[in-house]
Design brief:
about 180 residues, 3-stranded antiparallel β-sheet, globular
Length: about 180
Amino acid sequence: MRRKPSTVVATSTQSSKPDPPTLDSDLEQLSALLWETMQGLKRAGGGAPAELREAAARASLGPRHASTVLAVAAGEPLSVSELARRLGLGLSTASALVGQLSRAGLLERSEDDADRRRTIVRLHDDYRVAILKWRRESLAPLRGTLERLSPQARAGFMEGWRALHEEATRASARAPSQPAQ
């Protein structure tokens, strides 16, 4: 006669919750998410509008010029030194980028009436609508993310990004200087 196997019921004083992720596993996942997210954000908004691509091509401008245009769009009018700070660039590099974008007709430069030593930068009126639309479309994934979060979750999310920014800034300050690109 064959015996039926007995069923053993495991009893445990531990909860059935999985162990929380380790710092290393979170770091691995964050690293992958950051890379994929940044690639997706670069593609968001479908890239620069045709009229901007054409102006950039005529003036032999590259991708680094796009971030400069978008930074000006985010806070115009800006001084060249404010723009340099926003982009994490040296003043001479920011000034060169502004000069190239100005010659291409995308930005306008003017002296600050209150301080003639300061150069103020604005979007050129001919491209303002297209640039602002491009910026809005590029930021749509970020806006959608913030809208999905509760106020408490959004505060935590923003705190985390500020902490990441601070750590990246510290690491950048300790890194050896590299030539501007």
